[in-house]
Structures are given as structure tokens and as C-alpha cells.
Amino acid sequence: MVTDHLVELSRLQFAATAMYHFLFVPLTIGMVWMLVIMESAYVMTGKVIYKDMTKFWGKLFGINFALGVTTGITMEFQFGMNWAYYSHYVGDIFGAPLAIEGLMAFFLESTFIGLFFFGWDRLSRVQHLMVTIAMAVATNLSALWILVANGWMQDPVGAAFNVETMRMELVSFWDVVFNPTAQAKFVHTVSAGYTTGAMFVLSISAWYLLRRRDVEFAKRSFRIAAAFGFASICSVIVLGDESGYVVTESQQTKLAAMEAMWETEPAPASFNIVAIPNEAEMKNDFAIHIPWVMGLIGTRSLDTEIPGIREIVAHNRERVESGVEAVRLLHAIRAGDDDPAVRETFERVSDDLGFGLLTTRYAESMDKVTPEIMDRAARDTIPPVAPLFWTFRIMVALGFAMLVVFSLALYHSIRGDFAERNRLLKWSMWFLPVPWVASQMGWFVAEYGRQPWTIFGVLPTHMSVSTLSEASLYGSLAGFIGFYTVLLVVMVYLMIKYARLGPGSLGTGRYANEPAHA
Amino acid sequence: MIFDYPTIKLIWWLLVGVLLVGFAIMDGHDMGVGTLLPFAGNGDDERRAIINTVGPHWDGNQVWFITGGGAIFAAWPLVYATSFSGFYWAMLAVLWALFFRPVGFDYRSKIAHPIWRKTWDWGLFIGGAVPPLIFGVAFGNLLQGVPFHFDNNLVSHYTGSFWGLLNPFALLCGVVSTAMITLHGAVYLMHRTEDDIYRRARSAAMIFGALLVAGLTAAGIWVQFIPGYVITSVIDPAALPNPLAKEVVREAGAWMRNYQAMPLTLLVPALAYVGTLAAIWFAWRGRTLMAFVASSLGITGVIGTAGVSMFPFVMPSSTVPSASLTVWDSASSHLTLTIMFWATLIFMPIIVVYTSWAYKVMAGKVTTAWVRENNRSAY
């Protein structure tokens, strides 16, 4: 029996494990390129300090990578375990990028990470650099395929519903791969990863510099991180804007919710900097807005309207009504009605099938769907406004704050006086957690803003779950929380231990703090 | 699309088999090594030597598992959905056991405290021993049928419990699978170590080899008496997949039918025996590489036997047999199967090439002396 509570628990488990997984992913994506840069410098200049940098930052990279792998398996299992109907309904499309990710990217990344750590004495310099580069490329390809899968959940292009098999089926693979939503998400997400990797190296290097230890090592690391981080944060911001533009086209509900736009304003719409959204009355109790900005960002024009929440709900109310008809016809066809007229009518309304399915949360069968239920289903298409409005703004604010830090870090790197600027170093250090907070906020906006759907406009979340007992969910959730808490404690402990030890942990005899034991 | 729908469905049955066999051979040997770790290694240096035989490779090997899962998701969505949700607690046990591996390998030797290291040794044991055991038990249940059915919207409902999975025949299959993987790990360990570890690994190969032969024989006899499944309605392999459109009956000894109909398929169980016995023989003679190859062939035979016995069934339903999932009625669309076929055909050989290269780069015996020299960088 699928209860609302079972759905909530399944969502909570997926959200918690996905967000936890994404604590490790962005650092992997970003640091792997830093390693490529450092090792390239080693191969080109032959200076051993660059080799030590690659090895030391690689050690921290490895501690992080282990948990990325651990928590990644959970994600792949969980679709089948907790989202069985989803897996059946869209596996024909969604499974392919996941499998290709394994074949094309994850195999390469995981095989070569072993050689990265163990191959220093067995490979030539150039060979080892090639291994590192292959690992970096594979990591990014991996992100590409995962975001192709995720992008399709946001914007299900290239697929159609099949009545006989009762599922969505692939129509154009290239549409799925080159889905603009997926591509915009990919570049935005990997750039966020690059920023995370850069901030990690910048912060820890700043800490060494503040302590005046391993100064030469830290200065070189800081410079690379400043340059790489500046380029990355610029691209995060520019490509984030592109993401916003794509969302305007494909997911009006998400955009309207994250901007708290209840009414359709004459173009170009104004942008709410601050607002206190009131869900019950569907208005903002308070708002400060700048004219024109929303319209310009969202539509890149002066005369295109962006629909507000009220208008979208009214429009979706019509789609729900047509969708209820589609569900009714689908059941008739599956029960054996082979009248071509029924089939033809179904084809006409089948685009609204998902909207009809929204009513199954409130009514057991389509005969029991009342106009009130349709109203509720239409209202459900708007995700809760306040959480989206605020998480989006926190993400953007943190993005610009990081731009300031990286700009200053780069400016003083070029001037060459950063190592003496204690204020800059302190800010760089304190900014360590910021990219993580920003990317968690970003994912929250993306996925919470997709509600009430798992596949936008196609499959409602409440239908997607496995028919498990609530007790099973409580049990597994408790297990995940227990395991993940212990793992995080262990990982953070090791990370701090090795960051404190610094390059001395390599045992080369060239650095401060040579440890008594490994 | 060069292949018609029935052919590509059949190819995907073979490809899933290839991925499962690849998983068992590649991830299997490092799981076997993990299982043997607390027993084959005396003292920290020896244990580190054992861990470092698979240190550079376990991560890549584990991707066989991940890709196998992804391929089943893509090629047989209903099988993926029904089995993973039905076997919920069994899958959680596999998943949580696997948690011990990445952190066990990477974190264990980063802190020198003996309690820390011993704890992770047992973690690696769990990560090595539990997944093969549970996969064996799962196959034992697939062979008997699993209690699930579909409603008219194709929502799957599993009506069994976790404890129901632990029946005698399934546990026997668990023993077979664990013995198979541990034998495989043992011969790999022989190939990569020397002296005491080598000798202990050789003893383990003898013990688990004998256990595997005995277990295989017992399961082979037992399976004659358990009810298999037979499709009694007309099969249309070209039809759009719908698992509710057929008639199925349970019949004792039905899993022998494919061998009777096509005696050539008896070569598959024969391979299981010949491979295993040859692995034991070569291990005894100290020809470790040949033992590894033979053990790999034995694994191919064992997994192949399960597949051939059940064909065309993949996941039979014990409660509503007509809802059973087969190769013909639980597959993805023609287009998806075709695209995934090409993706596999292109990338699988590339994977084999660079994986082989990685093993070649790291080839040779891992000794305790090497561990001491590379104290800071080795696992």
C-alpha cells in the first residue's frame, strides 16, 4: 500500500543519500584537473616540488574519492530498490545513460585511479601524466552521462508513451543526449565542481601560509588554485545564467516558484530580491523588486512575458482535466477496448497523461475524480515557493561572494604579494565550506523545484515509489544515517589529519612536520 | 538496426551473462582476496601485502558490478525494478557490505593503530564475503521462483520476506557462490604472493575448490527435484514486452528441459566442473596463472549453468507464475537494446585492453619487503 508517508520517507532517503553523495563528487571533479595542472608542470619543468604537490593533493583527493565511490553505489541501487515503478516506467530511456556512464567513463576513471596512486615508479613521467589526464577526462564524462540522465528527468525529450508496454520508450537517443537542459546542467555542475576543487586547495594552502610553513609548496598551490578558481567561478555564474534561461523554457513552474512570481507581469518582469511568500493566499506579503531584471535574465528580450504562478495553475488545471480523460482511455484500452476511435482520442490527449496521474494521489479511480480534486492536482504542480526562493538566493549570493574571493586571490597572485596578506589568506581559509553549501543549495533548487514530478510532466513522484512497507523505509533510513555518519566522521578525521601533516606526510624529507609514522 | 527484435533480446540475455561473468571474474577475485585476508595474512606486513595485490585494481573491478546493474536497468527495466525492490533487505546488505571496501582499502593503512587496522581487515572481509554469499542466495531463489505479481498498471508487489530467502536450497547456492569466489581469490593471491601467504592461499584453494565441487554436485542433484517453470502458451519473441500475456506452469525437473532439448548445452555445466577441477589441479602444481584462467572458466560455467537452466526465464514468480519475467517480455524497446548493444560492443573491448594494461603495469609478486619500502604510499 503506497501511503503519502511512504512517499515522504522514500523521498527523504533519496534526497539525503544524493546530497551526501554530492559532498564528495564536486571535489573529485575539480581536484582531478588541479592534479593534471600540477603534474603537467612537473613533466614540463622537471621540478620535483610539482610532483610532490601532485602526490600530496592526490592523497587528499583519494580520501575524498573513496567516499564518492562508496556513496555512488547507493544511488544506482536506489532507483530499483525504492523507485521500482519509476524504474519500470522510464528505464527504457533513463537506464541507458547510466549504463553508458559505466562503460565509457567510470571504468576508465576507476582503473586509472589505481595507476595514478600505484604507478609512480612503474610508468614514465609522460605515461603517468597521460593516466592522470585520462582519469580527469573520464571523471567529467561520468558527470556528463549522469547529468544527461538527470536532465531528462527535468525535461523528458526524445521519448513517448507506449500503451502496450505501459511505459515511456526512447524515440531519439540524440535528443536525450543533446537535451539543452542536460547540457546546461552539465557545464554548470562541473564548473561548480572545479570551483570546489580550487577552493579546497586555496583554503588549505592559505592555512599553511598563515602558519608560515611549507611556504614554497603552499605558494605554488595557492597560485594555481587562484587562477583555476577564478576561471571556474566565472563560468559557474555565466553558465548558471544559461541554466536559468533554459529553465524559463522547459520548467515554468520551477522558475515561477524560485522567483516567487505569483502574477504574470507585463514584460519585462521585475526581479524579487527579497520576498516573504504567502502560499495560502498565493501572494507575497512583502517584496523588494528591481524592475525589468527578471524578464531580461529569463527571456533575454524586452517583450516576452513570463507566466506567474496563478496563470500556470489555471493552465495546468486544463491539462489535469484532459489528463484524467487520458488515464480513463488508457485503462479502457488496456482492459481490451480496441475501438480505433478510443485509441485516436487517447493519442490526442496522451501528452497530458501525467497530469491525469496527479489525481491518483487523491482518488482511487478516475470515476471518483471531482472538480475539487482536479483543483488540488493543478495547485500541486507548483512546488513550495519559500524554500526554493531562498535556497536559490543563497546559492547566487555565495557564488558572487566566491567571485570576490577568487578575484582578490588572483589579483594578489599576479602581484605576488598574497603570502603576506593575512586578511586575504584568512578569508580564503574561512571560505572552505562555501562551495559545498552553494552546490547543495543548487541541487535543492533543481530537484525540489521539480516536484511534484520525478519525470517532469510525465510521472508524479507519488506513483514512482516501490511498494515497500514504511517499516522497511525506517529501517533502511536508520541504517544509512548510521553508516554515513560514521563514514563522514572517519573521513573528516583523516582529511584533517593529512591536511595538518601537509606535504610532510609524503615522507620525502623535504617538508616540515615529517611524521613519526605513516 | 541490423538485428530484429527477438535476436537483440537474445543478444542481451547473452550480454547480461557476459557482464555478470565479468563481474564475478574481476570483482570476484578481489572479493575472494578480501574474504581470505584475515586468515591468509599473519601480522600487519603480510596483510598489507595481500591488500596491495588488489590495491590498484579493486576500484576498476567494482565497476563491473556497477555497469552490470546499469545494463540490467537499461536492458531489462522490469527485472531491475522487481528484483531490487523485492530483495530490498538483501540488496541493502550487499550495499552496506560494499561500503567497507573503498574506505577499507583506502583508509586502513593511513593510520597505524593496530585496532584501527584490524577493524578494517574485518571490514574488508565483510565486503568480500557477504556480496557473493547473497548473490548466490539470490540465484537460489530465482531458480525456485520469487513471490511477486503485477497489478494492471505493472506495479510490482513483492509478497515474501527477507527470511523467506534463506531457504535450504538457496543457502546451498550461497555456499557454491562463496566457495567459487573464494577459490578464485585464492588462486589470484597465489599468483601475486610468495612464501607463507602463498602456502596459505594454496591450502584455501584446495579447501574451497573441494567445497565448490561438492556444492555444485549437490545443487545439480537437488535441482532435479525442485519445481522449474514452463511456458505453456505460444511464445512470440517479437511481441512488445508484456509480462502478463502468457501462461506458465510449475513442474518438477523443468530446469532440465533445455538440456534435453539441446544436448550441446550440457557443455556449460561441464565447463563448470572441468574449469573448477583444472583450477584445483593447477593450484596444486603451483601453475598459478593457469589456475586463474581455469577458475575463470569454471565461473563462466557455473553462471552459465544457472542461465541456461532457466532460459527463457529470468525471474520466475512463485505466487503468480504467469507474471514471471522472461527474456522476451521484460526487455527494453528495440531502439534502446540496439543502442546499448553498440555501446557495449564499442566500449567493452577498450575496457578489456586498458584493464589488461593496468594489470601488466602492476604485475609481479607483492612482498612484505615492498610494503615496508613503500610504507607511506602503499595501502
TrEMBL record, chain A:
It is a multi-pass membrane protein. It is found in: Cell inner membrane. The keyword Cell membrane applies. The chain crosses the membrane at residues 20-44, 56-73, 93-117, 129-148, 186-210, 222-240, 390-412, 424-446, 473-496. One of its GO terms (biological process) is aerobic electron transport chain. InterPro entries: Cyt-d_ubiquinol_oxidase_su_1. GO terms for molecular function: electron transfer activity; heme binding; metal ion binding; oxidoreductase activity, acting on diphenols and related substances as donors, oxygen as acceptor. Keywords: Cell inner membrane, Cell membrane, Electron transport, Heme, Iron, Membrane, Metal-binding, Transmembrane, Transmembrane helix, Transport. GO terms for cellular component: cytochrome complex; plasma membrane. PANTHER family: CYTOCHROME BD-I UBIQUINOL OXIDASE SUBUNIT 1 (PTHR30365:SF0), CYTOCHROME D UBIQUINOL OXIDASE (PTHR30365). Belongs to the cytochrome ubiquinol oxidase subunit 1 family. This is Cytochrome bd-I ubiquinol oxidase subunit CydA. It comes from Azoarcus taiwanensis. The lineage of its organism: Bacteria, Pseudomonadati, Pseudomonadota, Betaproteobacteria, Rhodocyclales.
UniProtKB/TrEMBL annotation, chain B:
GO terms for biological process: aerobic electron transport chain. The chain crosses the membrane at residues 7-26, 78-99, 120-142, 162-183, 204-225, 264-284, 291-315, 335-357. Keywords: Cell membrane, Electron transport, Heme, Iron, Membrane, Metal-binding, Transmembrane, Transmembrane helix, Transport. One of its GO terms (molecular function) is oxidoreductase activity, acting on diphenols and related substances as donors, oxygen as acceptor. It is a multi-pass membrane protein. It is found in: Cell membrane. GO terms for cellular component: cytochrome complex; plasma membrane. Its main location: membrane. InterPro entries: Cyt-d_oxidase_su2. It comes from the Bacteria. NCBIfam families: cydB (TIGR00203). Belongs to the cytochrome ubiquinol oxidase subunit 2 family. This is Cytochrome d ubiquinol oxidase subunit II. It comes from Azoarcus taiwanensis. The gene is cydB.
